[in-house]
Design brief:
Helix content: 25-40%
Strand order of the largest sheet: 8-7-4-9-10-11
Distance between the termini: 23 Å
Structural class: alpha/beta
Radius of gyration: 20 Å
Number of helices: 11
Number of strands: 11
Length: 262
């Protein structure tokens, strides 16, 4: 979070009174990262109390603001905005080739590799490896494509997937995330913690069966499994693949809510 950027913009607004400050908070980490920085935290709370509008993605974040004595000018709006059909370019040819291979397509994504223990990571790549091994053992026809923005621990990823058939790990900034997700049959989000995972909404928007861990409240339409129970996750993924299960949900476009505020 760019705390100093927020402070700087607020000062500009004090000089130019005709400028209104609208600030959006997407996750609890905004305040968690301030816990050890008492002075900065006090300044940020002071600024937020004097911000014209604060937008949060859910009621839980609103309660976090209340716990920090910020109680006014708060709007709760899901931060997800429906992407336009013409946003971004086409998928790379090699990705199209992967998607056209035999078997149902399972996708997952993450920003980087963030360890929670020696053999476990926040985004759950270790869980995806386990699910892929189980699917292969049961002779289920599938391909699992995992998109990672920054493979900062390549040895860990190699150890998880190099010897697991039908798995592909990609790190390519030219891949438009929502277009990639829209081509899947199943999306898995096995994270150990999470914020507003927009990729889940992107999957639902494209009628992709979506399953995620129960570590935080999830969007309506997302299939939930108990984090740590890989057996439950596997059975739900296998059932979705074999029975071609689709979500039953119409995703709301929140752009009109933002337009009303602005």
């Amino acid at each position: 979070a760019n705390y100093y950027g927020l402070i700087s913009i607020w000062f500009v607004c004090q000089i130019h009174s005709d400028i209104k400050l609208c600030f959006t908070i997407h996750g609890e980490g905004f305040f968690v990262r301030l816990e050890s920085k008492k002075m900065l935290r006090n300044i940020i709370v002071y600024v937020l109390k004097r911000t014209d509008i604060i937008i949060v993605g859910n009621e839980k974040l609103k309660k976090v603001l209340f716990c920090n004595h910020i109680t006014e000018n708060i709007e709760v709006i899901d931060a997800f905005l429906t992407p336009g059909e013409d946003e971004g370019g086409e998928l790379p040819i090699y990705v199209e080739k992967l998607l056209s291979e035999e078997g149902k397509t399972i996708v997952a994504n993450g920003y980087n590799i963030d360890f929670i223990s020696e053999n476990e990571d926040l985004y759950g790549y270790h869980i995806l490896s386990d699910i892929a091994e189980k699917l292969n053992k049961d002779s289920v026809k599938f391909k699992m494509i995992i998109l990672i923005s920054d493979i900062n621990e390549p040895e860990y990823i190699s150890r998880l997937f190099d010897n697991v058939d039908n798995t592909y790990v990609l790190s390519d900034q030219s891949i438009v995330g929502w277009k990639f997700i829209s081509r899947a049959d199943v999306m898995i989000r096995p994270t150990s913690t999470d914020a507003n995972a927009f990729s889940l909404k992107e999957a639902l928007l494209s009628n992709v069966f979506t399953i995620a861990s129960d570590v935080v409240p999830r969007y309506e339409g997302v299939e939930i499994y108990e984090y740590g129970n890989n057996g439950e996750l596997y059975l739900k993924v296998r059932k979705a693949i074999l029975n071609n299960i689709k979500p039953k949900l119409i995703v709301k476009d929140n752009i009109f809510s933002y337009e009303n505020i602005y």
